[in-house]
TrEMBL record:
Limits of the HTH tetR-type domain: 6-66
Top-level taxonomic group: Bacteria
DNA-binding region(s) in UniProt: 29-48
Keyword set, alphabetical order: DNA-binding
Identification of the protein by name: TetR/AcrR family transcriptional regulator
GO molecular-function term, one example from the UniProt record: DNA-binding transcription factor activity
Keyword Cell division appears in the UniProt entry: no
The organism of origin for this protein: Nonomuraea longispora
Segments crossing the lipid bilayer: none
Amino acid sequence: MPPGETAQVAQILRAATQLFAALGYDGTSTRQIADAAGLNIATVNYHVGGKRELYLAVMERAHQAEKAALEQALDRLPGDDPTAGIHRLIDDYLDFCVDNPEIPALWMHRWLSDAGDITELERRYVQPLFAAVTATMRPIAESGLIDARVDLEYTMWTVVWSVHGFAKGGVLDDQGRRRGAGDRAPLRRFRAHLHLTVHRMLGLPGDPR
């Protein structure tokens, strides 16, 4: 629980997070959040605010969690073996999204124009994180390890699109059943595919398998 956050506020934000992740901002009402938290609307409004304030608090919480995880991952990236570091960064990001599936879900709703009247979140949250990854990757690219033709930002987006899609939608098995990130076999297969894809996109030396 973040500093200064009461147990009741945490309870409200957990309920709001689950509903916004499942239904999106546009599909969720304050009453639904209050009911899920086991409180009345007046109590929710008193502690956090209306629907917009709830959503902004949820996205801030999600951003802080992702920022902390990414900073830790980037701190481990530089080293004697940049190739291994890049693969470790892929694993760290995938593991974060699998462990926190509500966060990819929140952003995927925004990709589908959810909460269209709240426009500042990408500039405030997404762009700085992308800039941090690019700044860390740029010296590796300039060292000649990465193919000079590679667009680093689009490579990063490719990872985000793939990981969010898998974390949210999973894959279909031979029987047409949806298998999610909680299933170890599809997760292991997707992880191997992601490593191979990024390795080849960047033109890294060696074989990642």
